[in-house]
């Protein structure tokens, strides 16, 4: 593996020695696995308002997704390292089995807390699936061809993204939200059978690296407490509360301990010396920032359509479909351009992430009078820009590390995206709740403060349930109608205040997300471009192998 003059490593790809049939079957297996994991992420989005209403957990509803992401993040790096040593096959089988177990348990969740726990189990399997999918593509194809096949994987993500929101909304409206989890069972069992029978293991020959279990434990301790603190802050507890501050500080300390530990072990989970080169460092930082904004944006768009624009769960899923298609086309176009131009990360990254920032900026201007067309067009723009980043920074990272670190480096991209997403969801969720409460204080009619019972008033000002749950809306209107002759009219004004407050809170979330995306654009301008290698063999430029 050669080091260029600027200190970036050109990837030396080694042919895995598989037959064309093995390559084809491996690719098919990866496609199905990716479809399984990505469908679950998108099918849940449109059901969240209904889940939130049924299980009564507005203050924790972001953790339906955060728990999944936190759990998946905790296994991504160790999955990449283990697969470098023991191969991909049985890890894939185990990942899907864990995912299906979590799906079955989630379907029968009696409370919001139980659902959050079972989504965490799903996340363990889903994180392993995501990590192994991209690593396997890197095994099968040289850097110059990977972007094309990353496009195929993105197409599976796109198919599930298109089907997921609409299917999730339809199932939620026609059956119940429990079935969005049960649908994974008949889909996943055939995939397990396919992997057991046909998937080549690809166990690595030669000296084997040791698994850095200590590093895996430390990185989990560095992530989970901080995310809990961010979720609690401004929500269940004040930001100055010792529990919140202590959780964040503890995570910061453990992050430092993790960094020191990784410099002292022979086979680190995250080889810091390799990731110091500029291409990889910038690619991972931009991935962190776009992940921060991405997960928060996708999560809050269904709430915008259902809560502010009055769409049903099915309709909001249909509105998400064009945005997801934008992601697919953005990823496909970016991958093709990257393969044909040979590694122009900088210009593609600046253009693509800038488009994402523009879309988020447009969404930050939503209010109670926003039209469906405006929200939909803004979401499509954001989705296209987001899609361009999917293959770009993964390929850049793979092209900047030695072959022996390919698994953990590829997993690191997913890890940084997931960490960003976890932080984004926790922070955006707490921020939205705070902004909603603040908006209600400003928008609630003065008459409501005098006529509404304290318990009902507290419910109104802390939860927009009346906008997404017909039973809650009917109950609220009945309560106002019973309060006097002008009660019905006052009830309508209160509902409108809830809508305006929710719209303002969601707009504030998108504005905050846009700031982080703009930061990603600026950072991308400093990435260095290195040509993508076409095949194995010695690199074109001389240099020393990294120690």
From TrEMBL:
Gene Ontology MF terms: transmembrane transporter activity
PROSITE patterns, alphabetized: MFS, SUGAR_TRANSPORT_1
Cellular compartments per GO CC: plasma membrane
Residues covered by the Major facilitator superfamily (MFS) profile domain: 26-532
Transmembrane feature ranges: 25-49, 61-83, 90-108, 114-137, 149-171, 177-199, 211-231, 243-261, 282-305, 311-333, 345-366, 372-393, 405-428, 509-527
Keywords, comma-separated and alphabetical: Cell membrane, Membrane, Transmembrane, Transmembrane helix, Transport
Localization per record: Cell membrane
Main subcellular location: membrane
CDD domains: MFS_Azr1_MDR_like
Pfam families noted in UniProt: MFS_1
Membrane topology type: Multi-pass membrane protein
PANTHER family, alphabetized: COMD, MAJOR FACILITATOR SUPERFAMILY
Protein name, per record: DHA2 family efflux MFS transporter permease subunit
Organism name: Candidatus Lucifugimonas marina
